[in-house]
Predict the structure.
Amino acid sequence: MKLTFWGATRQVTGSMFLLETEDQYRILIDCGADMDKKAALNGNGQDEESPKSVAGFFPFEASSINVVLLTHAHMDHSGNLPNLYREGYEGQILCTDPTYSLTNLLLQDAASLNHRRLNEMGKSKKQKVRKKMASLQKDLFLEKQVRESMDNVVPIQYNRKFRLGDSIDVTFVPAGHLLGAAHIVINVYENGEKKSLCFSGDIGRKNYPLLGDPEPIPQVDYLICESTYGNRLHINSETPEAMLADVIKRTCIDIPGRLIIPSFSVGRTQALLYTLNRLYTEQGFPPIKVFSDSPLALESTKVYQKNLRLLNKEAKAYQEENESLFDFVNFEYLESSKASREVSNYNQPCIIISSSGMVQGGRVEQHVAANISNPYCTILIIGYCAEGTLGWRLLNGQPTISIKDKEEPVLAKVERTDVFSGHGDRDDLVRFVKHQSPEKLKKVFLVHGEFTSMSAFQQTLADEGFTNVEIPTKGQTYEL
């Protein structure tokens, strides 16, 4: 049996791993977009949820793959699925039902952006632009490829073995991180011997809003483990409710100000809305207007509401008592672009939640542009911002910011918190690995992290008794 690492090697993007059995059965685990490559194509960083371009190149024959297993919906794990079908793949995608729903929304959103971009480039009379468009058409998927991908999804229940054949079975184990996210455990039977692997996907945190805690996995022979936070702990230790209560009091109650929260539309926005709902209901906050400005967030929230059975006990109890997780007094979705623009004229204290989380593209740019020089505005960054993005520049304290080709002084306050991060930190990752016996675990492979994070986590695991830890390079193959 062979395992080849085709993505998320020494970087936090592009998860893609190829497992080949002795009888030539080929399993692709995740098929993510390489966000670093995408950023290079576009000249800037992009929201992980809605890329404007996706590389269409595969280092293997797409038609040779027998099945795809998908850990969760985020684009750095799912974003190349349409291109896989475009290049000849004809098999199925196995994932949980919520992952199917959220992946469909994200890929359709990306396809719509791709279509819009190609149309805009097609209207240009510049030969250079039209030549670039012809090149990008090879890499950009559209709605047709998304439909073809989603028509081949087979939903899998958590913690139920699914047989891929006489010699392979897979189990999806709840991973936290995002609705529907899973660790994938694979058992392969070869020559009378069972070999077991686990692909962690992205590991969630304990006590995260809405989601259950990551579940432990059974003993395996090989563990492919993410390491995004392998060298650090979460900075903020307070609860999401306490953090938000403090920020809202300072920015919208003590002064008649405006709070803008750039947020990814899938996962983060739902956690925010649920937390705000609880604040207003349980702590008696004044009914400050809350706007959610993302059509994708609206559709994603419907998926969360539909999958109540998969949420944590606290969320289920809250739903039963209050009849809604996400709807509360003075809350409004902004569905149209016109409604989004008109919020600038709202002159009362308010909270605006809008994508993208990196403040790069999306409607949030117009809200930041309209308020960046407003000293009564606070911009709360709640997630990772890639270098070069507008969010990254704000966090680095630039005195002026160029938005839409206009240089503006930064008079708004900029704050940051990681209480809504969906990734487990170093201690969470160690806890996940320590469910395994160091004596029985043959090897740990570290993926989905910067090399500095992986190296630090490798040493941390060594201190815990896990000495056989590898950091693969892209394209590296291991005989298991």
Notes: The longest strand covers residues 182-190. Residues 98 and 180 are 5 Å apart (CA to CA).
